[in-house]
């Protein structure tokens, strides 16, 4: 199962559209995961129409329309991997311990908000992943997204993809 992980797209505030490379990744993915800060419903509709399966949550920049359609936290089991998606996890310091306590029955937690790519493992084995942002690099050198696969009940091949600067 091929996964595409996105967050903090901020379309059309930070970018008018998603980069073409991201749309190509959408087409290849079995599941697209978006960890919030869509900003407008149009991108949700576009991703939902183009994705085989879409799992998403709302972020702090998402208004009432998106909040009506998306949960604050999404939980799914994908081929034996217990996945949770949330926008905010708080400060980087102590993140693993806080998230392990908040998501004890989760194997992988996908989050956003900071626009900073993140890949760590908590003491209880919880994998924390932030794909960064494909449209707003903030203080990062480039915009980014993540891909991964799930096979035989395990998350594998997690890869951070840098996007060319525009």
Provide a descriptive summary of the structure in words.
- The protein has one domain: Metallo-dependent phosphatases (Purple Acid Phosphatase, chain A, domain 2), CATH 3.60.21.
- 20% of the residues lie in helices and 31% in strands.
- The model has no long low-confidence stretch (mean pLDDT 96).
- The N and C termini lie far apart (31 Å).
- The strands form 2 sheets. A 5-stranded mixed beta sheet has the order 3-2-1-9-10, with helices on one face. It has a 5-stranded mixed beta sheet with strand order 4-5-6-8-7, with no helix packed on it.
- The chain has 166 residues and is of the alpha/beta class.
Gyration radius from CA atoms, angstroms = 14 Å
* CATH architecture label name: 4-Layer Sandwich
User: The biggest beta sheet, please?
Assistant: 5 strands, mixed
Termini separation: 31 Å
- Unreliable parts: none
CATH class (first level) name? Alpha Beta
Strand neighbour order, sheet with most strands: 3-2-1-9-10
The total of helices stands at 4
Strand and helix order: EHEHEHEEHEEEEE
Number of domains: 1
Question: What helical percentage do the residues reach?
Answer: 10-25%
CATH superfamily (homologous) name: Metallo-dependent phosphatases
Structural class: alpha/beta
Overall residue-averaged pLDDT value: 96
Protein name: Phosphoesterase
Cofactor: a divalent metal cation
Domain Calcineurin-like phosphoesterase: 1-152
GO molecular function, one term: metal ion binding
